[in-house]
Amino acid sequence: MNKYGFSTIVAGLVTATSATAFAAESKSTDLAVGLAVDQQLSAVFELDNQYRFIVGNDGGAFDYILKRGSFDTNTPVTWYVGAGAWTEWEGKEFGARVPLGINWDMSKGWNMYGQVHPELNLYSGPELQIGAALGVKYSF
Question: Is the pLDDT of residue 39 over 70?
Fold first, then answer.
């Protein structure tokens, strides 16, 4: 898959997700933006606390957060599990990933997250590898 194919898919997902979210008049869309170290230095966009788009120096990724939970009601730390896809801009590697992470609500609107994501590299045959990310987001 070349870089333009993945970019087209991501742009289509963003457009479809945004159109669906804004079409629902009774539900407001939660938007968070930030920076992360994921695909090297990356910009992060998160919609409805569930759809995470990562655009970085080395490539791009999309994560769908499947499940969220908390460790304790008295702590500002929660956990999440997701499913996603990633690619390099040069089109040399791409695959699927499973983000396993924690969130820390630092203050009103500010959130820090860290995750490890086992990856399945599909470029030249299936190969398992592991990645990680650390980011900060601000929710509007």
Answer: yes
